[in-house]
Write a structure and sequence with these properties.
The chain is about 30% helix and about 25% strand. It is α+β, with helices and mostly antiparallel strands and about 325 residues long. It has one domain: (Glycosyl)asparaginase (Glutamine Phosphoribosylpyrophosphate, subunit 1, domain 1, 4-Layer Sandwich). α2 runs antiparallel to α3, α3 runs antiparallel to α4 and α8 packs across α9. The longest helix has 18 residues. The chain binds aspartic acid (ASP). Aspartic acid binds next to β8.
């Protein structure tokens, strides 16, 4: 986690505020010599931990497996890692010392499942998938989500690791809630994949903002905000301040922009600009906010954009696995 973010780029903020930076596309993957070529399979995921997650997803994709299985397998890697302090086991608690997890999943047939404010279960993404596959509902929260998970055989365990508990106790001394952009107190793994069959799926999972109010949900368990998949068009997922992503129904917006013909890169840029402009209108300080989107279309083209520098994402296709620094609005 230590190297994941190198936040607080306060310099240049003043001069850069609300001036749209010229973007140089770096991830347009279409080969002009073969315009109809589809780059598949391919998987994208947020942050450094996406590298390892992609490896697990690729194991499924390279064997002609389904994107749905790939994204679940992929995000389970950081969920299970106690050193990843913003996802699953090891995630930082809320202000009451409770580790509450949010996750959602969406497949190529617009099947959706989500859990929010789920405690004591290491793999919320798999509970979200069970909600999708085994209930008539699409979202379960809190005690109801836990009750359902246990009924499905998920094991209850303590998710609060020593380091998170120590940090929380330290935080209690001031109880000052400041989810500072690019300080290491929140992150999400969002993963989107296109499989060999040409189908798209996505998954998103997080412990949300550290020391949040108990019961607070961000964008990550909300289909349309933290994740959206349309198998005719493309898929998108988000990380950063969930309140801002929800405000614009971020990932649905990114997919709709791709439907209008925008590249994944341009769609992410336009969604970020909505947040930038709303922040200005609402007289809030943009330097306090980070949001990053990643997007993938049916051709296997991808892109990403964020507000502040420091956000990166991992891409795995037949040419290998690599980490890419997202282009950003504030330099
Ligand atoms: N989007 C997550 C939330 O608001 C946190 C993050 O991705 O940094 O809960």
């Amino acid at each position: 986690m230590a190297n994941r973010r190198n936040f607080l780029k306060t310099t240049a903020l003043a001069s850069a505020a609300f001036a749209l930076q010229a973007f140089k596309g770096k991830a347009e993957t279409e080969d002009p010599a073969e315009p109809n070529k589809i780059n598949k399979p391919i998987v994208l995921s947020t942050w450094n931990f996406g590298m390892q997650a992609n490896v697990a997803a690729w194991e499924v994709l390279k064997n002609n497996g389904k994107a749905l299985d790939a994204v679940e397998a992929g995000v389970k890697i950081p969920e299970a890692d106690p050193k990843e302090r913003s996802v699953g086991y090891g995630g930082r608690p809320d202000r009451d010392g409770r580790v509450t997890l949010d996750a959602c999943i969406m497949d190529e047939n617009a099947n959706i499942g989500s859990v929010a404010c789920l405690e004591f279960i290491k793999h919320p993404i798999s509970v979200a998938r069970a909600v999708m596959e085994k209930t008539p509902h699409v979202m379960l929260v809190g005690d109801g989500a836990l009750q359902f998970a246990v009924s499905q055989g998920f094991v209850k365990e303590n998710l609060l690791v020593e380091d998170s508990e120590r940090e929380w106790k330290e935080w209690l001394k001031t109880s000052d809630y400041k989810p500072i952009a690019n300080i290491e107190n929140h992150d999400t793994i969002g993963m989107i994949a296109l499989d060999a069959n040409g189908d798209l799926s996505g998954a998103c999972t997080t412990s949300g903002m550290a020391f949040k109010m108990h019961g607070r949900l961000g964008d990550s368990p909300i289909i349309g905000a933290g994740l959206y998949v349309d198998n005719e068009i493309g898929a998108a997922t988000a990380t950063g301040h969930g309140e801002e992503v929800i405000r614009i129904t971020g990932c649905h917006l990114v997919v709709e922009l791709m439907r209008q013909g925008k590249s994944p890169q341009k769609a992410c840029e336009e969604a970020v600009m909505r947040i930038v402009n709303l922040t200005q209108k609402r007289n809030k300080n943009l330097k306090d906010i980070q949001v990053g989107f990643i997007a993938l279309n049916k051709k296997g083209e991808y892109g990403s954009y964020c507000i502040q520098g420091g956000f990166n994402y991992a891409v795995h296709d037949a040419t290998g696995n690599r980490l890419i620094d997202a282009s950003c609005f504030l330099k």
